[in-house]
Structures are given as structure tokens and as C-alpha cells.
Amino acid sequence: MPARPKKSVGLPSKEQVLEFIKSFETTVGKREIAKHFRLKGQEKIALKALLKDMAEEGLIDGRKSAFHRMGGLPKVTVLRIVEIDEGEPIAIPETWQPDDATPPPRVRVIERKKQAALRTGDRILARTEEAGSGWLAHPMKKLPSAEGALLGVIELDAAGKAWLAPVDKKIRNSSPVSDIGGAEAGQLVLAEPAGRSPRSGVKVTEVLGDPLAPRAYSLIAIHKYGIPHHFSEEVLAEAELAAKLPLSEEKRQDLRGLPIIAIDPADARDHDDAIWAAPNKDGGYDALVAIADVSHYVRPGGKLDREARRRGNSVYFPDRVVPMLPEVLSADACSLRHGEDRAAMVCHMHISNEGMITFWEFKRAIVRIAHNIAYEEAQAAIDSGDAPANLRHLWEAWHLLAKARGDRDPLDLDLPERRVMLDEQGKIAEIAVRERLDAHRVVEDFMIAANVAAAKALESKASPVVYRIHEPPTREKLIALREYFDSIGKKLALGQVITPSLFNRMIKDISDESEKALVMEAVLRSQTQAYYGPKNVGHFGLALGSYAHFTSPIRRYADLLVHRALVDAYGLEQPKPKSDLPAKTGLSDQDREDLSKITDAISLTERRAMEAERDTIDRYVAAWLSGRVGEVFDTRITGVQKFGFFATIVKLGGDGLVPVSSLGREYFRHDEAAHALIGEDTGQRYAVGDLLKLRLAEANPLTGALKFEPVDADGQPIEPRGSRPRARSRIRKDRKGKHQVGKRGRPGNIRHQGRKKR
Predict the structure, then answer these.
(1) Are residues 405 and 482 in the same domain?
(2) Does any domain span residue 743?
(3) pTM for the complete prediction?
């Protein structure tokens, strides 16, 4: 901790305040800062202004009573220019994860000399870095204006005037429509601003149809997040040409005689991985993981490759897939299907009787899959005892891998995954939690083993590696997690080395399943976002020192880059094809030079896909619940803010808001440290983790928003604040006999006329 000055030396600098705040493991308040620097009188007032400025600059978290060092920004992120300060652009993150009470950091943008001058409202993809007292951003490229495409539903008011109702739950206000463009009331449309002023309204540019029709929810997400979903004629033509490439046996192993199995979800659209194992004489197992050889078809520098890089990954919705590659490849030529010869990149491994991978080697091969089976089918065969030998051997080898995994003790957060099942008409048949089977773990552990082998193989040959990186939790997130644990009576000491094992032990010690799920969610929120990069930082969650993605090149560009690096490292380049396709299947010189830029970009597309998929699931859940408005559900509180709390339906999901005004007539105080709302009169407490019954008041399928309200012992809604005449609020009489009503009914806010100021 910085030494305390012997006497006040005036207002401290921003650097001194930051040094003092960072010296604490917990948050500190303005009082502690003033006391440490021995501030008095006007100096305390100046300190308040200084802290406000520091919050606006993103140096501290900006809360009124407690401060800690602001968390970091992604290394590459989308920023929006909010002002030009003496010729220097100032930007903020376009999406900001902390709660609404925490302002986004202000970032100084360093413009390149040959770059066109940035203006207020511009969006950029930029690299960020922390520098001294704030953040700097280095633009990579300018992005299209977000205002260029507004998504919403046409509504008509009583006077017949058209309005655009947003489908984004973060946008609360509708926009006037100046040009309806042939759209009708109730239709989903794309629009753009009609002029520079908000008063100019918007004009419709494209009619998308019925917003409640099948496949509309994913369409909303596709347009909202700008996900490319149409392939050009040139890309499709190149894909057709690539799909016809012959499977040359030169430099390929012939593994068609091995009974290799592909185990996938029952509704899988593509099959890019398959596995095989058999016992060896050393008491362990010989195993292989066969992955579709996408690098044979998608070659560096071609139109197909550029489009795959632009997309970064496939995006999976309940009603459709937006693939990274055209279907002639993703669902046909590259898909490992039963009984058909397919090009594969194979990882050969030896698994010791301790579950360690003692040998690995990568080869190109021709495979013929013996079986395509679903997880449930494989599990049923094992459970019945009638499984064929190749399936039994996989389970036996997996038990060894699972033993080694247990010794490694990676982060074990077994959180439920919602699954939306649709009928033949595209309507919701059921929303349920996906069952977790041993069959899932078998495939997962084989894939992890192959991914580790790929990373270590490339390292051993001094080849470029696209690592899958998961950094340990930041100190700021650990402090927040410790504060949460304190509020529920658990301890997290920050002086020790933080490992996945530490979190696992805490979770295992909890017997109550509801509390366990809550703690797992809290631990999950403390984790950093995984990303791709060419410099190894390790994978905290998996407790691995080296990790790469190798097993899904059909749907992830990162895996395709790893395959290309393996082609070079193991000398697996094949003869030039007799076609107009590029000859090389390994890494291009441009790939090597731009690897950092590529990994930054595909990390961004991955986050985009995750947000789009989550939004779409939320809309499906809201649609599923829209016919059950008025019902009472068992819920659990997942977040608390001063304006209310969020709750999710147990075993179904779907977060909804409970406004503080609906909690009754008393005033509720927000206890930030305890993550709770506490009634000032009765002490009624609503805290994160509480299980309670709530009535579903609203469910909006267009935005995915839910709204709940509390009920009394008879299941009836509680009378909300403000529903009775204000005369029944806290009322006192002043000396003149006049009634004075306190703000929000709070005694401390009642003003007494005629009384001298104290």
C-alpha cells in the first residue's frame, strides 16, 4: 500500500489515486481515499469531481460509493467515435458488458497518417492497449455505419401514422416512419435514417415479412449482427469445382479398413470428426481422430478461402445453419458419411494405461466411416451391453483419458444447455435442457486430446500455431467474485494461486443443487473470454499449457489454419490439381504474415455468432412462453440492480426483469455488495440466488424480453408501488400544518418549510 502522507499535500493526481485503489484487494470509497491523502474541506469536493472525471475516462468503475480499477477491454474490439477532442477522436466500446451503472471507458484513437479522418458516429475495428492513465486504440479498419440498417416491425397508431418498433430489447423507443415503402402493419422490415436529424424519422428499405413466421427469429439475428448469409455466384462456382477434386492416394494413408465411428447429435447437419481405438500390447490403446480434410478443398488465396475467412465460423440457430462453407462442401464432400470415401487429416495417438498421450503423428488419409450414430444411440448400445467391439474399445480408451483428465482437474461447470426443438412446420415443439451423457464426454475427451497433440506437434516443429487461449480470471473479476461469495457466506482468499481445482473444490462442497448451480454461474461470469492468437498463454479452463483447435475445420476457420500448418510441418503437400484452383494447401506467406490479424478477426466473428445464437434462443423462449402469460413459475434471481432484479425460470431459462416498482409500496434499498434489494420497512430481501415464485407478466417474442411480477401467498400479484393515492404515502405536517409528502415516501427526503437549515 502507498505510504500515507504525513499531512495534506493537496488534491492527489489520477496516478496516485489509481495506485492507492490498486493497493486494495477490495473496493474503496471516497471516504477512504480522502482519509489516506488527509484531504479536508474544499479538497474533498475537488476529489469528488476528480473521481467523476476518472470514471468518465474509464480509469475506475464509476460507482458513487465504492471504486475499483476498471476492467480491461478486448484486445480487438468495435469502437464508436463519440467526440473529437482538439482533433483527437474519442471512442467508447460499441458493446459494454458491465452493468448499466458502470460507464464504458473512453478510448483515445491514434489515427494513421494515410487514413481518412474519423468523424463522430464512425465505427471502427481497433486494437486496444492500456497506456498510463487510460486506453489507446489503433484502428484496423472502418466499419459500415450501424445506423445504415435498422430492424423493426411496422406499427400504426390511432391516427394511422407509421412507427418502427425495434426488435432489440436494448432500444426502448419507436421511430417515426417517413417512407413506409409498401410495408404493411405488423411486417418485419429493414430501414435506414431518412435524414440527419432524429426528427426526420426512418424510411423502409426492405420488407422481410411476418416477424412471427418460422425462421424469422434467426433472420432477425442475422440482420441485427450483420452475419453474411448469402454466397456469391463466384464462391459457389469455386466450391462446386473444389468438390470434384479427386482423392489422390499419393501421400495419403488408406484407412478404409478401420471401423471408424462418427458420433454426432441426432440433428447434426455436418460430420467433420470420427474416432477409433483398439488395445495395444503395452496395456494402453492405439487411437486415431479423423477430421475432414477441408484444406484439400479450401485453398489459400481463392474466393472460397476469402469468404470463409470473412465469416470466421458457422452460426447455428434452431431453425437453420449459416455455414462457413457452401453446402456442397460442408454437408457433402467434406462430411464424413457412412460408407463413402472421404479425405481426412488423421491424428494418430498412443494412450498409456495412465491415460497420457505418449505419441502423436499427423497424416493425410482416405477413410470410410463404418457408422454414423447419434450420442443417444451410442449410449444406449453401451448401457445395454450389446455394443460392437469398436464402440466398446472407444469407451475403454476414454476411461483412461478420463483418469488423466481427473488428475489434471480442469474447470468443471456442468451448466444446463437449452435446446429448442421444432416441428416440421418450423414451430416450437419443445424447449428442454439437453441431457449430458457419457457419450458426449467420450467424444469431447478424444477431441481435446487431438487438439493438444496438434498444438504440441506444431510447437515441436517450430511451425506457426493458432492457439485457443483462455487466460486466468482478472483480479477485478476475482474481487467481484469474492464479494459475491462473502454475501452468501463463502470465502475466496485472493492470496493463493487461483486454479480450476480451487473452483472445483468449492463447487463439490455444496450439497444443495440450487446453490451449486448458482455458484457455477458466478464462477462462469468470473472467467475471461477465450480467443484465438499466435502467442501461447495457455488454457486456464482446461488446465492445459498448449491448446489449439484442430477438430472442426468445416465450421471454424481457426481449425483450417491449424490443418494448413500441419500440412507444412509434416510435408503433406500433394500434387497440383488439374484445375483452376490454387495449388497450395498449406499456409500461404500471407497467412504467416497476417496470422495475428486473422486470429483477432475470427475471435470477433466467434463472439458475434455467440451473441446471435443467444439472442435467437431468447426469442424462441419468449415465443414459447407468450401463450403462458399469467402463469406462476418457479424462478431463481440471477442479477440485482437498483431498478429491479432479473430472474430466470428454473429448468427452462429465459431471463426476465422484475421492476422494483412491482415489489410493493415500501422503498427498497440496493445493497450492491450483497447483490440484494432490501425493504426499508419490513426488511424483505431479494438477493441473487433466491428461489421464488413469480408471475409471467409479459413475453415479447420479437425482442426476447420477459417481464415478471411477484405474487402473494395466494398467487395473486402484489400491489405495486404507486397504485394507491399518494396521500397514503409517508406524510408529515410541517409547522404551518401543511402536508409534506416525501420523495418515494422516505422520511429523509421530507422537506419542512420554515425550518432553518442546519
Answers:
(1) no
(2) no
(3) 0.76
- Do 65 and 111 fall within a single domain? no
Residue 338, CA distances (Å) to 261, 274, 302, 346, 517 in order: 9, 11, 30, 17, 39
Beta-sheet pairing, 123-131 with 676-679 = unpaired
Of the ranges 8-12, 136-140, 536-540, the best mean pLDDT one: 536-540
Confidence check: pLDDT of 210 > 60: yes
- Residue 490 to residues 413, 480, 486, 496, 519, Cα–Cα distance (Å): 18, 13, 5, 16, 10
HSE (CB half, 13 Å, CA atoms) of 401? Answer: 26
CA 536 to centroid of chain Cα atoms: 22
- Alpha-helix runs per DSSP H in 570-642: 589-593, 595-625
- Give the structural domain span for 312: 233-410+438-463+543-612
Q: Verify that 131 and 279 share a domain, yes or no.
A: no
Q: Where is average pLDDT lowest: 146-160, 346-360, 382-396?
A: 146-160
Query: Is 36 a domain residue?
Result: yes
DSSP 300: T
Same structural domain for residues 553 and 519? no
Distance CA 179, CA 189 (A): 12
| Residue 267 forms part of a structural domain | yes
The reply to whether 362 and 495 lie within a common domain is: no
The dihedral over CA atoms of 718, 719, 721, 724, expressed in degrees to the nearest 10, equals -170
Domains identified in the chain, total number: 6
Band of residue 395 on the pLDDT scale cut at 50, 70, 90: very high
d(CA 660, CA 666): 10
Task: Indicate the average pLDDT of the chain.
Answer: 85
Residues 323 and 343 in one domain: yes
User: Which residues, 6+ apart, have CB-to-CB distance to 473 below 8 Å?
Assistant: 481, 498, 526, 527, 528, 540
Q: Is residue 578 part of a domain?
A: yes
10 by Cβ neighbours in 10 Å (0-12 / 13-18 / 19+) ranks as exposed
